[in-house]
Design brief:
Helix content: 55-70%
Number of domains: 2
Strand order of the largest sheet: 8-11-12-6-13-14
CATH architecture of the largest domain: Up-down Bundle
Number of helices: 18
Strand content: 5-15%
CATH superfamily of the largest domain: ABC transporter type 1, transmembrane domain
Oligomer: single chain
Number of strands: 14
Amino acid sequence: MPTARPAAFDRRFARQLWCLVRLYWRSSDAKWGALLLSLAIALELGAVWGNVLLSYAQREILDALAAKNAFGFFTTIGLFLGLVSVFLLVSTYRTFVRQMLEIRWRRWLTAHYVERWMGDLAFHQTVLHNEEADNPDQRIAEDVRDFVASALGLSLSLLSALATLVSFGGILWRLSGSWPIELAGATVHVPGLMLWVALVYALLAMWVTHLVGRRLVPINFDRRRVEADFRYGLVRFRDHTEAVALAGGQALERRGALDRFGHVVTNWWQLIRAERNLNLLTLGIGQANDLVPLLVAVPAYFAGHLTLGSIAQTRIAYGSVSASLTWFVSAYQEIARWRASIERLSTLAEVMDATTRDVAAAERIRLSRGEGETLRFSDLRLALPDGRVVLDAASAHIRAGERIAVVGPSGTGKTTLFRAIAGIWPFGSGRIEVPLREGMLFLPQQPYAPLGSLRAAVCYPAPEDAFPDERVREALRLLALGHLEPRLEQVEHWEQKLSAHELQRVALARALLHEPAWVFLDEATSALDEAMEARVYALLAERLPHAAVVSVAHRPGVIAHHDRRWDLSAGPDGRAVLEAA
Protein backbone atom coordinates (compact mmCIF):
# COMPACT_ATOMS: atom_id res chain seq x y z
CA MET A 1 0.00 0.00 0.00
CA PRO A 2 1.27 3.54 -0.67
CA THR A 3 2.99 5.44 2.07
CA ALA A 4 0.63 7.41 4.31
CA ARG A 5 0.35 11.10 3.54
CA PRO A 6 2.28 13.19 6.06
CA ALA A 7 0.92 15.77 8.45
CA ALA A 8 2.10 19.29 7.83
CA PHE A 9 4.60 19.95 10.61
CA ASP A 10 4.85 17.82 13.74
CA ARG A 11 7.36 15.94 15.86
CA ARG A 12 7.80 13.34 13.15
CA PHE A 13 8.83 16.10 10.74
CA ALA A 14 11.41 17.44 13.20
CA ARG A 15 12.80 13.94 13.81
CA GLN A 16 12.96 13.13 10.10
CA LEU A 17 14.65 16.43 9.30
CA TRP A 18 17.26 15.92 12.00
CA CYS A 19 18.04 12.38 10.81
CA LEU A 20 18.46 13.46 7.20
CA VAL A 21 20.58 16.52 7.97
CA ARG A 22 22.96 14.73 10.29
CA LEU A 23 23.71 12.03 7.70
CA TYR A 24 25.88 14.42 5.70
CA TRP A 25 27.15 16.62 8.51
CA ARG A 26 28.60 13.60 10.30
CA SER A 27 30.23 12.23 7.14
CA SER A 28 33.86 12.40 6.04
CA ASP A 29 32.93 15.12 3.55
CA ALA A 30 31.47 17.34 6.27
CA LYS A 31 34.69 19.33 6.76
CA TRP A 32 34.58 20.56 3.16
CA GLY A 33 30.87 21.17 3.49
CA ALA A 34 31.46 23.21 6.65
CA LEU A 35 34.05 25.33 4.84
CA LEU A 36 31.67 26.07 1.98
CA LEU A 37 28.78 26.67 4.37
CA SER A 38 30.85 29.17 6.36
CA LEU A 39 31.72 31.02 3.16
CA ALA A 40 28.08 30.95 2.04
CA ILE A 41 26.97 32.37 5.41
CA ALA A 42 29.60 35.12 5.22
CA LEU A 43 28.48 36.07 1.71
CA GLU A 44 24.81 35.99 2.78
CA LEU A 45 25.52 38.37 5.65
CA GLY A 46 27.67 40.48 3.34
CA ALA A 47 24.73 40.84 0.96
CA VAL A 48 22.52 42.02 3.84
CA TRP A 49 25.13 44.58 4.92
CA GLY A 50 25.37 45.72 1.30
CA ASN A 51 21.62 46.36 1.28
CA VAL A 52 21.96 48.44 4.45
CA LEU A 53 24.69 50.60 2.89
CA LEU A 54 22.66 51.00 -0.30
CA SER A 55 19.66 52.23 1.73
CA TYR A 56 21.81 54.96 3.32
CA ALA A 57 23.19 55.91 -0.11
CA GLN A 58 19.67 56.24 -1.54
CA ARG A 59 18.67 58.41 1.41
CA GLU A 60 21.62 60.73 0.79
CA ILE A 61 20.81 60.94 -2.93
CA LEU A 62 17.22 62.04 -2.29
CA ASP A 63 18.25 64.49 0.44
CA ALA A 64 20.83 66.01 -1.91
CA LEU A 65 18.14 66.37 -4.56
CA ALA A 66 15.73 67.99 -2.10
CA ALA A 67 18.49 70.45 -1.03
CA LYS A 68 19.49 71.03 -4.70
CA ASN A 69 23.08 70.12 -3.73
CA ALA A 70 24.60 69.14 -7.09
CA PHE A 71 28.05 68.27 -5.70
CA GLY A 72 26.61 66.11 -2.94
CA PHE A 73 24.25 64.44 -5.41
CA PHE A 74 26.96 63.38 -7.88
CA THR A 75 29.36 62.37 -5.10
CA THR A 76 26.71 60.11 -3.59
CA ILE A 77 25.86 58.69 -7.03
CA GLY A 78 29.51 57.65 -7.44
CA LEU A 79 29.49 56.00 -4.02
CA PHE A 80 26.21 54.30 -4.84
CA LEU A 81 27.60 52.83 -8.08
CA GLY A 82 30.67 51.54 -6.25
CA LEU A 83 28.49 49.87 -3.65
CA VAL A 84 26.31 48.34 -6.37
CA SER A 85 29.39 46.82 -8.06
CA VAL A 86 30.55 45.19 -4.82
CA PHE A 87 27.00 44.08 -4.02
CA LEU A 88 26.62 42.39 -7.42
CA LEU A 89 29.91 40.52 -6.92
CA VAL A 90 28.90 39.33 -3.44
CA SER A 91 25.42 38.29 -4.60
CA THR A 92 26.81 36.34 -7.55
CA TYR A 93 29.33 34.38 -5.51
CA ARG A 94 26.77 33.87 -2.76
CA THR A 95 24.75 31.78 -5.22
CA PHE A 96 27.86 30.11 -6.70
CA VAL A 97 29.20 28.93 -3.33
CA ARG A 98 25.79 27.66 -2.28
CA GLN A 99 25.56 25.61 -5.49
CA MET A 100 29.04 24.17 -4.86
CA LEU A 101 27.90 22.99 -1.43
CA GLU A 102 24.62 21.74 -2.88
CA ILE A 103 26.28 19.40 -5.38
CA ARG A 104 28.70 18.05 -2.78
CA TRP A 105 25.86 17.34 -0.33
CA ARG A 106 23.67 15.84 -3.06
CA ARG A 107 26.53 13.66 -4.34
CA TRP A 108 27.21 12.24 -0.89
CA LEU A 109 23.55 11.72 0.05
CA THR A 110 22.77 10.10 -3.32
CA ALA A 111 25.71 7.73 -2.89
CA HIS A 112 24.47 6.89 0.61
CA TYR A 113 20.97 5.98 -0.60
CA VAL A 114 22.23 4.17 -3.70
CA GLU A 115 24.61 2.09 -1.58
CA ARG A 116 21.84 1.15 0.83
CA TRP A 117 19.17 0.52 -1.81
CA MET A 118 21.42 -1.41 -4.19
CA GLY A 119 23.43 -3.20 -1.49
CA ASP A 120 23.37 -6.76 -0.21
CA LEU A 121 19.76 -6.47 0.98
CA ALA A 122 18.39 -5.09 -2.30
CA PHE A 123 16.65 -8.36 -3.14
CA HIS A 124 15.04 -8.48 0.30
CA GLN A 125 13.70 -4.93 -0.09
CA THR A 126 11.56 -6.09 -3.01
CA VAL A 127 10.49 -9.31 -1.29
CA LEU A 128 9.53 -7.78 2.05
CA HIS A 129 8.64 -4.12 1.57
CA ASN A 130 8.26 -3.43 -2.13
CA GLU A 131 4.83 -1.78 -1.77
CA GLU A 132 5.69 0.38 1.23
CA ALA A 133 8.13 2.69 -0.57
CA ASP A 134 6.86 3.34 -4.08
CA ASN A 135 9.26 4.48 -6.80
CA PRO A 136 12.60 4.33 -4.94
CA ASP A 137 14.30 5.45 -8.17
CA GLN A 138 12.44 8.76 -8.08
CA ARG A 139 13.09 9.24 -4.39
CA ILE A 140 16.83 8.82 -4.87
CA ALA A 141 17.04 10.87 -8.09
CA GLU A 142 14.58 13.70 -7.42
CA ASP A 143 13.76 13.83 -3.72
CA VAL A 144 17.44 13.88 -2.72
CA ARG A 145 18.02 16.75 -5.17
CA ASP A 146 15.02 18.74 -3.93
CA PHE A 147 15.76 18.08 -0.26
CA VAL A 148 19.33 19.35 -0.51
CA ALA A 149 18.42 22.37 -2.65
CA SER A 150 15.62 23.41 -0.31
CA ALA A 151 17.61 22.68 2.85
CA LEU A 152 20.31 25.12 1.73
CA GLY A 153 17.99 27.61 0.04
CA LEU A 154 15.55 27.85 2.94
CA SER A 155 18.16 27.88 5.71
CA LEU A 156 20.33 30.54 4.06
CA SER A 157 17.32 32.65 3.13
CA LEU A 158 16.10 32.37 6.74
CA LEU A 159 19.54 33.47 7.95
CA SER A 160 19.39 36.41 5.55
CA ALA A 161 15.91 37.26 6.83
CA LEU A 162 17.10 37.26 10.46
CA ALA A 163 20.16 39.37 9.61
CA THR A 164 17.93 41.75 7.66
CA LEU A 165 15.53 41.95 10.58
CA VAL A 166 18.34 42.90 12.97
CA SER A 167 20.02 45.35 10.57
CA PHE A 168 17.00 47.14 9.14
CA GLY A 169 15.04 46.72 12.37
CA GLY A 170 17.53 48.99 14.09
CA ILE A 171 17.29 51.53 11.29
CA LEU A 172 13.49 51.42 11.37
CA TRP A 173 13.48 51.80 15.16
CA ARG A 174 15.66 54.90 14.96
CA LEU A 175 13.75 56.45 12.06
CA SER A 176 10.33 56.01 13.67
CA GLY A 177 11.38 56.55 17.27
CA SER A 178 10.08 60.14 17.56
CA TRP A 179 7.11 60.26 15.22
CA PRO A 180 4.14 62.03 16.81
CA ILE A 181 0.72 60.41 16.70
CA GLU A 182 -2.39 62.50 17.31
CA LEU A 183 -4.90 60.60 19.49
CA ALA A 184 -7.98 62.38 20.92
CA GLY A 185 -6.20 65.72 20.76
CA ALA A 186 -3.07 64.44 22.48
CA THR A 187 0.31 63.81 20.89
CA VAL A 188 1.73 60.35 21.58
CA HIS A 189 5.22 59.05 20.76
CA VAL A 190 5.54 55.27 20.28
CA PRO A 191 9.20 54.12 20.29
CA GLY A 192 9.96 52.13 17.12
CA LEU A 193 6.44 52.59 15.80
CA MET A 194 7.11 51.20 12.32
CA LEU A 195 8.85 48.12 13.73
CA TRP A 196 5.80 47.25 15.81
CA VAL A 197 3.54 47.80 12.80
CA ALA A 198 5.69 45.43 10.71
CA LEU A 199 5.69 42.80 13.46
CA VAL A 200 1.90 42.81 13.94
CA TYR A 201 1.30 42.75 10.19
CA ALA A 202 3.73 39.82 9.74
CA LEU A 203 2.19 37.72 12.53
CA LEU A 204 -1.29 38.11 11.08
CA ALA A 205 0.02 37.29 7.58
CA MET A 206 1.80 34.11 8.77
CA TRP A 207 -1.24 32.86 10.65
CA VAL A 208 -3.59 33.36 7.72
CA THR A 209 -1.05 31.89 5.26
CA HIS A 210 -0.67 28.70 7.29
CA LEU A 211 -4.43 28.26 7.51
CA VAL A 212 -4.76 28.58 3.74
CA GLY A 213 -1.56 26.85 2.62
CA ARG A 214 -1.26 23.78 4.87
CA ARG A 215 -3.15 21.64 2.34
CA LEU A 216 -0.13 21.92 0.03
CA VAL A 217 1.92 19.43 2.07
CA PRO A 218 -0.19 16.28 1.41
CA ILE A 219 -0.96 17.46 -2.14
CA ASN A 220 2.74 17.74 -2.98
CA PHE A 221 3.38 14.34 -1.41
CA ASP A 222 0.73 12.77 -3.65
CA ARG A 223 1.99 14.68 -6.65
CA ARG A 224 5.40 13.01 -6.55
CA ARG A 225 3.83 9.59 -6.23
CA VAL A 226 1.32 9.89 -9.08
CA GLU A 227 3.87 11.52 -11.41
CA ALA A 228 6.33 8.71 -10.72
CA ASP A 229 3.67 6.02 -11.23
CA PHE A 230 2.71 7.53 -14.59
CA ARG A 231 6.34 7.76 -15.73
CA TYR A 232 7.14 4.23 -14.57
CA GLY A 233 4.19 2.85 -16.53
CA LEU A 234 5.50 4.47 -19.71
CA VAL A 235 9.02 3.14 -19.10
CA ARG A 236 7.66 -0.35 -18.44
CA PHE A 237 5.70 -0.26 -21.71
CA ARG A 238 8.86 0.81 -23.54
CA ASP A 239 10.76 -2.12 -22.03
CA HIS A 240 8.08 -4.63 -23.07
CA THR A 241 6.86 -3.24 -26.38
CA GLU A 242 7.23 -6.53 -28.26
CA ALA A 243 5.42 -8.60 -25.61
CA VAL A 244 2.55 -6.10 -25.54
CA ALA A 245 2.33 -6.04 -29.34
CA LEU A 246 2.33 -9.84 -29.61
CA ALA A 247 -0.42 -10.07 -27.02
CA GLY A 248 -2.41 -7.30 -28.68
CA GLY A 249 -2.48 -5.40 -25.41
CA GLN A 250 -1.90 -1.87 -26.74
CA ALA A 251 -5.45 -0.73 -26.00
CA LEU A 252 -5.28 -1.97 -22.42
CA GLU A 253 -1.86 -0.36 -21.92
CA ARG A 254 -3.18 2.94 -23.31
CA ARG A 255 -6.13 2.85 -20.94
CA GLY A 256 -3.83 2.09 -18.04
CA ALA A 257 -1.49 4.95 -18.97
CA LEU A 258 -4.36 7.39 -19.35
CA ASP A 259 -5.89 6.22 -16.06
CA ARG A 260 -2.58 6.86 -14.30
CA PHE A 261 -2.36 10.24 -15.99
CA GLY A 262 -5.90 10.92 -14.79
CA HIS A 263 -4.54 10.74 -11.24
CA VAL A 264 -1.87 13.27 -12.27
CA VAL A 265 -4.54 15.62 -13.61
CA THR A 266 -6.70 15.26 -10.49
CA ASN A 267 -3.73 16.00 -8.27
CA TRP A 268 -2.76 18.91 -10.53
CA TRP A 269 -6.17 20.53 -10.10
CA GLN A 270 -5.90 20.13 -6.35
CA LEU A 271 -2.45 21.71 -6.45
CA ILE A 272 -3.27 24.70 -8.64
CA ARG A 273 -6.43 25.48 -6.66
CA ALA A 274 -4.47 25.43 -3.41
CA GLU A 275 -1.66 27.50 -4.94
CA ARG A 276 -4.20 29.92 -6.43
CA ASN A 277 -5.69 30.57 -3.01
CA LEU A 278 -2.26 30.96 -1.46
CA ASN A 279 -1.05 33.25 -4.26
CA LEU A 280 -4.10 35.46 -3.94
CA LEU A 281 -3.39 35.77 -0.25
CA THR A 282 0.36 36.36 -0.47
CA LEU A 283 0.07 38.84 -3.37
CA GLY A 284 -2.65 40.71 -1.53
CA ILE A 285 -0.56 40.80 1.62
CA GLY A 286 2.43 42.08 -0.35
CA GLN A 287 0.56 44.78 -2.22
CA ALA A 288 -1.18 46.06 0.90
CA ASN A 289 2.08 46.00 2.80
CA ASP A 290 3.70 48.39 0.30
CA LEU A 291 1.29 51.14 1.35
CA VAL A 292 1.67 50.70 5.10
CA PRO A 293 4.96 52.64 5.58
CA LEU A 294 3.72 55.57 3.48
CA LEU A 295 0.38 55.79 5.31
CA VAL A 296 2.08 55.72 8.70
CA ALA A 297 5.01 58.01 7.83
CA VAL A 298 3.20 60.69 5.80
CA PRO A 299 1.69 62.55 8.84
CA ALA A 300 5.19 62.94 10.32
CA TYR A 301 6.49 64.17 6.97
CA PHE A 302 3.71 66.74 6.61
CA ALA A 303 4.41 67.88 10.15
CA GLY A 304 8.04 68.53 9.18
CA HIS A 305 9.57 65.78 11.32
CA LEU A 306 10.93 63.78 8.34
CA THR A 307 12.83 64.57 5.15
CA LEU A 308 12.02 63.05 1.77
CA GLY A 309 15.18 60.95 2.05
CA SER A 310 14.05 59.69 5.46
CA ILE A 311 10.71 58.68 3.95
CA ALA A 312 12.52 56.73 1.22
CA GLN A 313 14.82 55.00 3.70
CA THR A 314 11.88 54.26 5.97
CA ARG A 315 10.08 52.57 3.10
CA ILE A 316 13.19 50.54 2.22
CA ALA A 317 13.77 49.57 5.86
CA TYR A 318 10.12 48.70 6.43
CA GLY A 319 10.04 46.62 3.24
CA SER A 320 13.18 44.71 4.31
CA VAL A 321 11.95 44.16 7.87
CA SER A 322 8.51 43.13 6.66
CA ALA A 323 10.02 40.73 4.09
CA SER A 324 12.16 39.13 6.78
CA LEU A 325 9.23 38.82 9.16
CA THR A 326 7.01 37.35 6.44
CA TRP A 327 9.73 34.93 5.25
CA PHE A 328 7.45 32.06 6.22
CA VAL A 329 4.70 33.44 3.96
CA SER A 330 6.99 33.77 0.94
CA ALA A 331 8.65 30.38 1.46
CA TYR A 332 5.50 28.40 2.29
CA GLN A 333 5.11 26.69 -1.09
CA GLU A 334 8.74 25.57 -1.14
CA ILE A 335 8.47 24.41 2.47
CA ALA A 336 5.44 22.30 1.52
CA ARG A 337 7.38 20.65 -1.33
CA TRP A 338 10.37 20.19 0.96
CA ARG A 339 8.19 18.53 3.57
CA ALA A 340 7.03 16.00 0.97
CA SER A 341 10.66 15.22 -0.04
CA ILE A 342 11.65 14.73 3.59
CA GLU A 343 8.75 12.33 4.16
CA ARG A 344 9.56 10.27 1.06
CA LEU A 345 13.29 9.99 1.83
CA SER A 346 12.62 9.18 5.47
CA THR A 347 10.08 6.52 4.54
CA LEU A 348 12.57 4.91 2.18
CA ALA A 349 15.19 4.87 4.94
CA GLU A 350 12.65 3.39 7.36
CA VAL A 351 11.83 0.63 4.88
CA MET A 352 15.51 -0.21 4.47
CA ASP A 353 15.96 -0.23 8.26
CA ALA A 354 12.90 -2.46 8.62
CA THR A 355 14.33 -4.87 6.03
CA THR A 356 17.57 -5.11 7.97
CA ARG A 357 15.66 -5.83 11.19
CA ASP A 358 13.34 -8.36 9.53
CA VAL A 359 16.20 -10.30 7.98
CA ALA A 360 18.18 -10.24 11.22
CA ALA A 361 15.19 -11.32 13.33
CA ALA A 362 13.95 -14.08 11.02
CA GLU A 363 14.74 -17.71 11.63
CA ARG A 364 17.48 -18.06 9.11
CA ILE A 365 19.43 -20.58 7.13
CA ARG A 366 23.01 -20.88 8.32
CA LEU A 367 25.42 -20.37 5.47
CA SER A 368 29.06 -21.30 5.97
CA ARG A 369 32.12 -21.38 3.76
CA GLY A 370 33.74 -24.77 3.49
CA GLU A 371 37.36 -25.41 2.63
CA GLY A 372 36.69 -28.51 0.59
CA GLU A 373 35.30 -28.99 -2.91
CA THR A 374 31.83 -30.17 -1.89
CA LEU A 375 28.64 -28.18 -1.55
CA ARG A 376 26.31 -29.74 0.97
CA PHE A 377 23.17 -28.91 2.92
CA SER A 378 21.56 -30.76 5.76
CA ASP A 379 18.06 -30.62 7.26
CA LEU A 380 17.37 -27.61 5.03
CA ARG A 381 13.98 -25.97 5.35
CA LEU A 382 13.02 -23.22 2.89
CA ALA A 383 10.23 -20.87 3.93
CA LEU A 384 8.53 -17.74 2.64
CA PRO A 385 8.81 -14.45 4.57
CA ASP A 386 5.35 -15.11 6.06
CA GLY A 387 6.61 -18.40 7.54
CA ARG A 388 4.97 -20.83 5.10
CA VAL A 389 7.35 -23.72 4.41
CA VAL A 390 8.13 -24.50 0.76
CA LEU A 391 10.78 -27.22 1.04
CA ASP A 392 11.24 -29.31 4.18
CA ALA A 393 14.04 -31.45 5.62
CA ALA A 394 16.23 -31.53 2.52
CA SER A 395 19.72 -33.01 2.71
CA ALA A 396 22.06 -33.49 -0.26
CA HIS A 397 25.54 -32.71 -1.57
CA ILE A 398 27.27 -31.77 -4.82
CA ARG A 399 30.88 -32.66 -5.53
CA ALA A 400 33.13 -30.62 -7.76
CA GLY A 401 32.68 -31.57 -11.40
CA GLU A 402 29.30 -33.26 -10.96
CA ARG A 403 26.38 -32.64 -13.30
CA ILE A 404 23.03 -32.57 -11.47
CA ALA A 405 19.53 -31.93 -12.85
CA VAL A 406 16.93 -30.52 -10.44
CA VAL A 407 13.44 -31.55 -11.52
CA GLY A 408 9.96 -31.19 -10.08
CA PRO A 409 6.63 -29.40 -10.56
CA SER A 410 6.42 -25.61 -10.41
CA GLY A 411 6.17 -24.21 -6.90
CA THR A 412 8.27 -26.91 -5.23
CA GLY A 413 11.10 -24.51 -4.41
CA LYS A 414 13.71 -25.12 -7.12
CA THR A 415 14.46 -21.43 -7.72
CA THR A 416 14.25 -20.71 -3.98
CA LEU A 417 16.82 -23.46 -3.38
CA PHE A 418 19.21 -21.71 -5.78
CA ARG A 419 18.60 -18.42 -3.97
CA ALA A 420 19.45 -20.05 -0.66
CA ILE A 421 22.68 -21.48 -2.06
CA ALA A 422 23.53 -18.03 -3.43
CA GLY A 423 23.06 -16.59 0.06
CA ILE A 424 20.24 -14.19 -0.79
CA TRP A 425 17.39 -16.22 0.77
CA PRO A 426 17.78 -16.47 4.56
CA PHE A 427 14.21 -17.53 5.35
CA GLY A 428 14.07 -20.99 6.78
CA SER A 429 16.42 -23.18 8.80
CA GLY A 430 19.14 -25.72 8.38
CA ARG A 431 22.67 -25.37 7.13
CA ILE A 432 24.30 -24.89 3.75
CA GLU A 433 28.04 -25.33 3.36
CA VAL A 434 29.35 -23.84 0.16
CA PRO A 435 32.81 -23.49 -1.36
CA LEU A 436 34.23 -20.05 -2.05
CA ARG A 437 31.45 -17.78 -3.40
CA GLU A 438 33.77 -16.28 -6.04
CA GLY A 439 33.72 -19.58 -7.89
CA MET A 440 29.93 -19.58 -8.40
CA LEU A 441 27.85 -18.29 -11.28
CA PHE A 442 24.03 -18.24 -11.26
CA LEU A 443 22.18 -17.81 -14.57
CA PRO A 444 18.38 -17.25 -14.35
CA GLN A 445 15.79 -17.94 -17.02
CA GLN A 446 15.46 -14.25 -17.84
CA PRO A 447 19.00 -12.88 -18.15
CA TYR A 448 19.90 -9.39 -17.05
CA ALA A 449 21.77 -7.08 -19.42
CA PRO A 450 23.20 -3.92 -17.83
CA LEU A 451 22.89 -0.54 -19.49
CA GLY A 452 25.95 0.01 -21.65
CA SER A 453 27.81 -1.66 -24.46
CA LEU A 454 27.28 -5.22 -25.65
CA ARG A 455 30.78 -6.00 -24.41
CA ALA A 456 29.70 -4.92 -20.93
CA ALA A 457 26.68 -7.24 -21.17
CA VAL A 458 28.87 -10.21 -22.16
CA CYS A 459 31.46 -9.57 -19.43
CA TYR A 460 28.94 -8.87 -16.66
CA PRO A 461 29.36 -8.80 -13.67
CA ALA A 462 33.03 -8.11 -14.37
CA PRO A 463 34.03 -4.76 -15.94
CA GLU A 464 33.85 -4.68 -19.71
CA ASP A 465 37.66 -4.56 -20.02
CA ALA A 466 38.20 -7.58 -17.74
CA PHE A 467 38.75 -10.03 -20.62
CA PRO A 468 40.87 -9.79 -23.78
CA ASP A 469 38.97 -8.86 -26.90
CA GLU A 470 39.73 -12.18 -28.61
CA ARG A 471 38.31 -14.19 -25.69
CA VAL A 472 35.09 -12.19 -25.78
CA ARG A 473 34.75 -12.70 -29.53
CA GLU A 474 35.55 -16.40 -29.24
CA ALA A 475 32.84 -16.87 -26.58
CA LEU A 476 30.30 -15.27 -28.91
CA ARG A 477 31.35 -17.43 -31.85
CA LEU A 478 31.19 -20.63 -29.81
CA LEU A 479 27.54 -19.83 -29.00
CA ALA A 480 26.65 -18.92 -32.60
CA LEU A 481 26.61 -15.20 -31.83
CA GLY A 482 29.34 -14.22 -34.27
CA HIS A 483 26.94 -11.84 -35.99
CA LEU A 484 27.07 -9.68 -32.87
CA GLU A 485 30.84 -9.16 -32.95
CA PRO A 486 30.65 -5.89 -34.95
CA ARG A 487 28.27 -4.50 -32.32
CA LEU A 488 30.42 -5.14 -29.25
CA GLU A 489 31.09 -1.44 -28.67
CA GLN A 490 27.55 -0.28 -29.36
CA VAL A 491 25.58 1.10 -26.41
CA GLU A 492 21.98 -0.07 -26.57
CA HIS A 493 19.14 -1.29 -24.37
CA TRP A 494 20.15 -4.89 -25.10
CA GLU A 495 17.21 -6.51 -23.33
CA GLN A 496 15.06 -4.96 -26.05
CA LYS A 497 17.47 -5.30 -28.96
CA LEU A 498 18.22 -9.00 -28.54
CA SER A 499 15.78 -11.90 -28.74
CA ALA A 500 15.18 -14.19 -25.77
CA HIS A 501 17.44 -16.94 -27.12
CA GLU A 502 20.20 -14.42 -27.93
CA LEU A 503 20.02 -13.00 -24.42
CA GLN A 504 20.30 -16.48 -22.93
CA ARG A 505 23.35 -17.24 -25.07
CA VAL A 506 24.96 -13.91 -24.11
CA ALA A 507 24.49 -14.93 -20.46
CA LEU A 508 25.96 -18.37 -21.17
CA ALA A 509 28.96 -16.68 -22.78
CA ARG A 510 29.67 -15.23 -19.34
CA ALA A 511 30.19 -18.77 -18.04
CA LEU A 512 32.81 -19.41 -20.72
CA LEU A 513 34.60 -16.15 -19.84
CA HIS A 514 34.45 -16.33 -16.04
CA GLU A 515 35.18 -20.09 -15.89
CA PRO A 516 33.44 -20.61 -12.54
CA ALA A 517 33.88 -23.78 -10.52
CA TRP A 518 30.12 -23.94 -9.89
CA VAL A 519 27.47 -23.15 -12.50
CA PHE A 520 23.79 -22.97 -11.56
CA LEU A 521 21.36 -22.80 -14.50
CA ASP A 522 17.76 -21.94 -13.56
CA GLU A 523 16.08 -22.87 -16.88
CA ALA A 524 18.83 -20.77 -18.48
CA THR A 525 18.46 -22.67 -21.79
CA SER A 526 14.65 -22.67 -21.96
CA ALA A 527 14.57 -20.34 -25.00
CA LEU A 528 17.07 -22.43 -27.01
CA ASP A 529 16.23 -25.19 -29.45
CA GLU A 530 17.37 -28.72 -28.60
CA ALA A 531 20.41 -28.60 -30.89
CA MET A 532 21.71 -25.36 -29.37
CA GLU A 533 20.90 -26.61 -25.88
CA ALA A 534 22.97 -29.74 -26.49
CA ARG A 535 25.79 -27.57 -27.85
CA VAL A 536 25.72 -25.45 -24.68
CA TYR A 537 26.11 -28.44 -22.39
CA ALA A 538 28.84 -29.87 -24.63
CA LEU A 539 30.70 -26.55 -24.40
CA LEU A 540 30.38 -26.54 -20.61
CA ALA A 541 31.76 -30.07 -20.46
CA GLU A 542 34.60 -29.19 -22.83
CA ARG A 543 35.56 -25.72 -21.55
CA LEU A 544 34.72 -26.24 -17.85
CA PRO A 545 35.53 -29.92 -17.31
CA HIS A 546 36.11 -29.55 -13.56
CA ALA A 547 33.08 -27.31 -12.88
CA ALA A 548 29.94 -28.59 -11.20
CA VAL A 549 26.83 -27.84 -13.28
CA VAL A 550 23.44 -27.80 -11.56
CA SER A 551 20.40 -27.20 -13.78
CA VAL A 552 16.73 -26.68 -13.07
CA ALA A 553 15.21 -28.78 -15.83
CA HIS A 554 11.74 -29.44 -17.20
CA ARG A 555 12.67 -30.90 -20.58
CA PRO A 556 13.94 -34.49 -20.84
CA GLY A 557 16.69 -33.31 -23.19
CA VAL A 558 18.26 -31.25 -20.41
CA ILE A 559 18.16 -34.12 -17.92
CA ALA A 560 20.11 -36.28 -20.38
CA HIS A 561 23.14 -34.00 -20.09
CA HIS A 562 23.52 -34.64 -16.35
CA ASP A 563 24.87 -37.51 -14.29
CA ARG A 564 22.49 -37.26 -11.33
CA ARG A 565 19.11 -35.82 -10.56
CA TRP A 566 17.29 -34.33 -7.62
CA ASP A 567 13.55 -34.81 -7.57
CA LEU A 568 11.39 -32.27 -5.74
CA SER A 569 7.82 -33.36 -5.19
CA ALA A 570 4.96 -31.90 -3.20
CA GLY A 571 4.12 -33.81 -0.02
CA PRO A 572 0.64 -34.36 1.42
CA ASP A 573 0.90 -31.18 3.53
CA GLY A 574 1.92 -29.05 0.53
CA ARG A 575 5.57 -28.97 1.52
CA ALA A 576 8.03 -30.17 -1.09
CA VAL A 577 10.51 -32.93 -0.32
CA LEU A 578 13.79 -33.63 -2.06
CA GLU A 579 15.01 -37.02 -3.21
CA ALA A 580 18.64 -37.05 -4.32
CA ALA A 581 19.59 -39.85 -6.67
